[in-house]
UniProtKB/TrEMBL annotation:
Pfam families given in the database record: Guanylate_kin
Keywords: Kinase, Transferase
Domain named Guanylate kinase-like: residues: 2-192
Entry keyword Kinase: yes
Molecular function as annotated in GO: kinase activity
Entry protein name: Guanylate kinase
Protein species of origin: Blautia stercoris
Length: 198
């Protein structure tokens, strides 16, 4: 059976960067499980790459059809943004393994939906000061930087990824993203090992 390799970490820990590199990796050949969001697309993002960018009506459509696996809404300074995973027919674990990005909460819900044996957590960590610098640098590249949202998210993450919650979710292994290259090679080796085991 295939596995869902689930990348998690606080904002600006490097999840998207790592996700893109692993997707490009010739020798892993992982399918993509793309989450949905109603938040506006950022400059440089592409539909279907980081997320499926949809409006609220689409979310309600999936919900009505009972196809929402997990959903969470953040009351941001720009209004409510919903992030969700939908059973949109793109996942077949009998055929392949997948790579996804999500939160600790969505990870727990996917475990309940697909079964604990199908999920494999990839938790990425960066020292807080360095992570904040990367977040600001990334925001500065945006046409309309959202600094308030950056601060809100930074504070919310401290709670959402508390040591207690990590322990509850059974996250033991951590991948430190100081050097991207080293972090990527450690994650790649880990995924290969887990693929052989499954
Ligand atoms: N090892 C690294 N060294 C320096 N910069 C890095 C490293 N890894 C990622 N970055 C940069 O840090 C910024 C944040 O990375 P990225 O957008 O991948 O984080 P993220 O975890 O997906 O954040 P979010 O959850 O907020 O979308 C980006 O500008 C990225 O280029």
């Amino acid at each position: 059976m295939g596995k869902i390799f689930y990348i998690m970490g606080k904002s600006s820990s490097g999840k998207d960067t790592i996700y893109r590199k692993l997707q490009e990796s010739e020798n892993l050949k992982l399918g993509r499980l793309v989450l949905y969001t109603t938040r506006p697309i950022r400059d440089g993002e592409k539909e279907g790459q980081e997320y499926h960018f949809v409006d609220e009506a689409k979310y309600f459509e999936f919900d009505k059809a009972e196809k929402v696996i997990e959903a969470r809404t953040y009351q941001t300074v720009y209004g409510p943004w919903t992030y969700f995973t939908a059973d949109d027919g793109s996942v077949d674990l009998s055929k392949t393994s997948y790579l996804a990005i999500g939160t600790l909460e969505s990870y727990q819900n996917l475990k309940a939906y697909y079964g604990v044996a199908s999920l494999c957590p990839i938790y990425v960590e960066v020292e807080d000061g360095e992570r904040l610098k990367r977040a600001i640098a990334r925001e500065e590249t945006q046409k309309e930087p959202h600094y308030e949202e950056l601060c809100r998210r930074f504070l919310a993450d401290a709670e959402d990824f508390s040591e207690e919650k990590l322990e509850q979710a059974g996250i033991e292994k951590r991948f430190f993203n100081k050097s991207l290259e080293t972090c990527l090679s450690e994650i790649t080796a880990y995924i290969k090992k887990r693929l052989i085991e499954s």
